[in-house]
Amino acid sequence: MRTSRVQPGMDQKLLKIYLQDHHAASAAGLDLVRRLARENAATPFRDDLARLAEEVADDRATLGNVLQTLGVEPSRVKIALARSAERLSRLKLNGRLLHYSPLSRLIELETLSAGIEAKRDLWQALGQTVDREFGVDLDRLTGRAETQLALVERLRTSAASLAFTKTADL
Prior knowledge:
Layout: H1 12-39, H2 46-70, H3 76-88, H4 102-129, H5 138-163
Helix pairs in contact: 1-2, 1-3, 1-4, 4-5
């Protein structure tokens, strides 16, 4: 790890683990938001989820650049485990045996919200950890995460209403 980029006295080993964990989780988060966008391509959620998927992909790329700048190698094992966990989460009971359901959308939006909240917290933690000359606008990234959270909350509220309406098929 390049110690010249972090504040003096930081535990380099723990920072490396923290970054690798968030990078791995971001792979699962990206898979999740892409799945949400794909499964909702014919719904009113389409445009918001497509834009959100692009932003999450951009945020993941930025995090990859942060790791590279700090000399931290991504953990292939952690990435594989995170992606496997995301795929396993699809096996939940959703009221339909073989197909995506309105309940799937609601649960996935709730999961996505938790991931975006963790991403926001990552950007804030890095703001306390890396030097001011780091080259990444962590305040902008934190603000974007807040905007994403507000969007997901709006979508989640709509999804909840639809999920529990008997005629909902969106």
